Amino acid sequence: MIARTMEETRDVLSRTWSSRGGLAGWFSITTHQEIGKRYITTAFIFLLIGGIEALLMRLQLARPDNTLLSAQRYNQIFTLHGTTMMFLFAVPVMEGMGVYLVPLMLGTRNVAFPRLNAFGYWMYLMGGLFLYAGTFSNSIPDAGWFSYPPLSGPQFSPGKGLDVWGQMITYTEISAMCVAVELIVTIFKMRAPGMSLHRIPMFCWAMLVQSFMVLFAMPAVMLASTVMLVNDRTIGTHFMNPAEGGDPLLYQHVFWFFGHPEVYIIFIPALGMVSSILEANTQRGIFGYSAMVLSLVANGFIAFGLWVHHMFATGLPQIGEAYFTTASMMIGITSGVQIFCWLATLWTGRLRLTAAMHFVFGFIFIFVLGGLTGIMLASIPFDLQAHDTFFVVAHFHYVLIGGALFPLFGGFHYWFPKFNGRLLDEKLGKLTFWTLFLGFNLTFFPMHVLGLNGMTRRIYTYPAEMGWGPANLLATIGALVIALGGIFFIVNVLRSRQSGAVSDNNPWKAGTLEWEPASPPEKYNFELQPVVTGRYPLWEAPEKRAAVTGMREDRREVIVTSVMDGVPQFRMVLPGSSIWPFLTALGFGIGLAGSVVWFSWYFVASALGMFGLIGWFWPYEPGEIEP
Amino acid sequence: MIHQSAIDAAGRQAAQIQGLFWFFIVLLGGIFLIVVALMLGPLFCRHRGLDREPLEQTHTPSIETERKLTHRVGWATGLTVLILLGLVVLSVSTGRSISGGNPPANALTVEIVGNQWWWYIRYLNEDASRVLVTANEMHIPIGRPIVIRGSSHDVIHSFWIPNLHGKRDLIPSHTTTEWFQADHEGRYRGQCAEFCGLQHAHMALWVVAETPAQFDSWMDLQLRPAPAPSDAVKQKGQRIFLDHACVLCHAIRGTTAAAEQAPDLTHLASRSTIGAGTLPNTRGNLADWIADPQNSKPGNHMATVALSREDMPPLLTYLESLK
Amino acid sequence: MRIAAIGFCLFALIGCERDRRELRPAPTRLAIFKDAARESDLQPGGVHSEPQVQNPYSGNAYAISEGQRLFSWYNCAGCHANGGGGMGPPLIKDQWTYGGQPANLFDTIVKGRPNGMPSWGGRIPEYQVWQLVAYIRSLNHEEPVTATPPRSDHIQQDSGTLMNKPGGGTR
Fold first, then answer.
1. pTM assigned to the model
2. Predicted complex ipTM exceeds 0.85
């Protein structure tokens, strides 16, 4: 152990945790902050692309018998919109926030498997590029974001568009599983000493539950799309071919076994964000921590028992369907408990109405409305009328945008100073909120009425005599207002990065550990890893705060603690920068992309990927930096 | 304006669902308003009593406050559980009452097979001579249960007449069943409700609910083969039909045309629309449709047959005679 | 004398057309059918590699899929099964009686062939014939594998859908 001043310590830490410069260095980065920011930025670009697709759809539907988009083009665009939003934006952005925030909240320096983290990001990026590369070469999927066979099968969707779709899912789901694995291990084993499970922030609980759900749900979608659908389409298997003993409903079951947990995978991290924002802006710990945690866990379990509610119209036995009605309604309890706890927190805290808090209020309003229409849809007789109509479109946009996007934007406004060192403009933030809120309701509320009045989903046009014109026009205007809100947000971000008010380490006076380091944090997060004695370390009296000493700064060392009580167990050395995750992802990526066209490229993928993995796992001495 | 609406019920199943819907709106709407009020409350009551809370030191309110909150959250949760259980019971019992058990005995059974992008309709009957095959428009008697036995010839479709009942998917290799009853005369429009490809938007179905007497006379008329051409123009039209690709896919009972790939045209002129609800059935639209089916419904499977200018009018006259 | 003259003219009439020698053919008869679908690889005077008429839909996945649909709708399977043949010859083979090039297949479908192949010309439009040609070529792996579906959704020759059963019922 070398005696050093704090200043020298900081220097050595900086060097230990930096990456080489230049292009090779950029591809080798394995620090969680950088990778988290990459996830978020990439996902945001896909959000914009998906938003443009939505605007195109709305412009086509604004008037009856409109000819802006042909039938084929419209079908392609709604497929891309759903696919982009669900697979390329919603899950990755939550993962990105998790990857960035969880180590900071836990008081550690990186995630448990830094190279796996990098690999997951590159796979995600490649998946998105693969889908849109197919788009630019006219191989565009057009069977909807869940692509039911036989429509999506070889006979009714000729060409490569759907093969691209099915294979893209492989990339994004591998990526999601990488993040899930590393977050679970990080949350369980790499916390600050003293941080028992009962003291971790709600956002970390949310990411933990979400990660377990990912592990169980993502393999199901890979099975449905990549294995069953792509193989039916390319090598002549018969999973969904009734003529040879297969069944189209098999796909629906396997897909929705993933599909329903997927929406909770998107939504649960947002619940964690709401708790974080609420705690800081009411200056009290969340009410009912234990109840909240149990609700999250119950939510995660129950979510796997709901999938048939997407299939109520398929003629399954009534008794079985009734079970799913019950489960679908019961999940309202877990969400309800959380809402009640948040309301209790709101009523008994010192409320500070920041822009982020506006989004929390908007979340409660919109999500509760969406949740209540969900209760309606859980009832089979009503669902048989509303299924596959714009009523369902309205419902899921209310719960997804209200339940995930509004908290996310609240989280952006809340954590922006931590990411960037400057505060977003509060006034513009509130304007963003009101524009998004009003635009959203103007767009999606009329859709409830449209659905009840018989407008089915996924139609590229409708006759004037149906009377759906006025509501559709309102919805289109609302969509333009949403776009305006998006523009306000982007302007706010771009301006504030340059000239926003400089932020100190804890502008909101929050209690959790991510606010201890400077804004933005150094690459090593904490000069000394903290030791905690309570749930809100930054709200503890200063004399009670402690830190870990005696760690080596010249290599990437972290403390590993026990699962339940956060007792330090041993030191672990994390790998430094490495190009191998990128090369491995590139190898698998090229192979998987080619396999859509030539099956033998699966072997190419294996070979290239294996080459990458050999480099990755080649034994090495922990990198040490000269002091 | 066409009221293809789930909240404009014309039959008992749809009416029960409609009732359930309004109950939900009132109950859940009320709950929503309460939650929003509770959410907005703190904005207006910000400082009431809070100055007494020791939040600055501990960031937790007093023990009494926490206990009071636990009480209230507990009650709210309990109430939520009860309400949801009640809603489960209500939903399941409504479902049972509209379509539980076996279909009623005096039902009229109709087989519906979905195709890209039209509806094959076959009225079943123990008397084989009274089995009727038609397409895209069906008549039903009011006051009598109609059992739909559905399947699909290609991809998954969904049979949905909102004014009468919820939907039922039509899945290849499966037979799905639902029954409903119309209680008011009228013409009700339905639409395919499962994305089925390029022209999913133009796959509509008309259901005409009429008195049993009117239904019986409609059925008698439909069961007859097509009237023989009564003059030379119609004869020429029939000749043109049989000499071109039309005969390869369409059936007209009473002629040698008996294919089932495309809608049965035996009584085409008795239907109000063509192209599965895409265009009103007028001479001009029929000409447009035959000359270029891809114009109104691009991607549909009807062959584009180039007819000469002399051939089209007699063909139209013949088709118009198929009442 | 008159009878002999009439008899002589009658003789002349019988022989007129038969013995006429057309030394300079009419211009309409001078065409050389360059685009004819050849049914033999041999050509007198050596083989010229002229490009035959191409299938405009070759390599197009949608056209092959449409050809698959039309193969079923127009009941080609009634004689040719799913390519293996039955009453009619198989359509998956190396030796084609009337030629297996796209232009030959087009000809076969449009003109019909002896011993049972109907003539589809005049019934179905040209683009559908080319779609069928593309499909048949795909059965023989003559179309890019990326455009060819690996299987049909109706391989099993089972009892078919509801539509074929009188009075309803399935399976």
1. 0.93
2. yes
